[in-house]
Specification:
about 220 residues; alpha+beta; FAS1 domain; 7-stranded mixed sheet; 11 helices
Length: about 220
């Protein structure tokens, strides 16, 4: 139980730092280091740290509402409903964990976020990027491994934090070649234009705005090394 609390605390602290940095956007290194240093804090202590930054005024063009520069791209964007629940228009008005839960093709990820107890944490974070594996991506994992991960909250939190980065990453940011995750290690990015790989996962639909995050839908689950 203690290790589960520490894992959740680490990600919560990292995300609270995202809220504190506000519109500073695309820095990659500060959150993981600070999160590791504060991993011994309790969840209740980090929840207090999260409350204060949330009272700051939002930066222009960020929360509430989507980044004005966001322009979804990729063949997978056509799979979103044209209007209503789960549409790109609706996602732009919702916080990210809530938004993920309204997309049928991302229901496994949404369920994992809920099992890890991270819905409120992600919804209240400010300016983050999530690399979101589809249901089919999760299905590619060995069933035994998937079930073990989904039933182990510490392992699940570690896995999910490897899919989250500080700042709203644009396609231009991806061209730097690496993205530092809240798990503390880097993702390797290759490609250009509207074709990108995150490690060995293809981006199916990228630069999708939600109220507090940018989402890149990918076709494989990213596994920490």
């Amino acid at each position: 139980m203690k290790t589960r609390l520490l894992a959740l605390s680490t990600l919560t602290v990292a995300l609270s730092l995202c809220a504190a940095c506000g519109g500073q956007g695309n820095g990659n290194s500060a959150a993981p280091a600070a999160a590791n240093e504060t991993a011994t804090d309790t969840v209740s202590e980090t929840a207090g740290a999260e409350t204060s930054p949330a009272t700051e005024s939002p930066s222009p063009g960020t929360s509430p509402g989507a980044s004005p520069s966001a322009s979804p791209f990729g063949a997978g964007c056509a799979s979103f409903p044209a209007s209503g629940r789960g549409s790109l228009t609706q996602l732009a008005s919702e916080p990210v964990a809530t938004a993920l839960g309204s997309v049928p093709s991302l229901s496994t990820l949404a369920s994992a976020v809920k099992k890890a107890g991270l819905v409120e944490t992600l919804d209240s974070a400010q300016d983050i990027t999530i690399f979101a594996p589809t249901n089919e991506a999760f299905d590619k994992l060995p069933k035994k491994k998937l079930n073990q991960t989904l039933s182990d909250r510490k392992a699940l939190t570690t896995l999910l934090s490897y899919h989250v980065a500080k700042g709203r990453k644009t396609p231009t940011d991806l061209q730097s070649g690496k993205i530092t995750t809240l798990q503390g290690t880097d993702l390797t990015v290759t490609g250009s234009g509207q074709n990108y790989k995150i490690n060995d996962a293809d981006v199916l639909c990228g630069d999708v705005p939600t109220r507090n995050a940018t989402v890149y839908v990918i076709d494989k689950v990213l596994l920490p090394k």
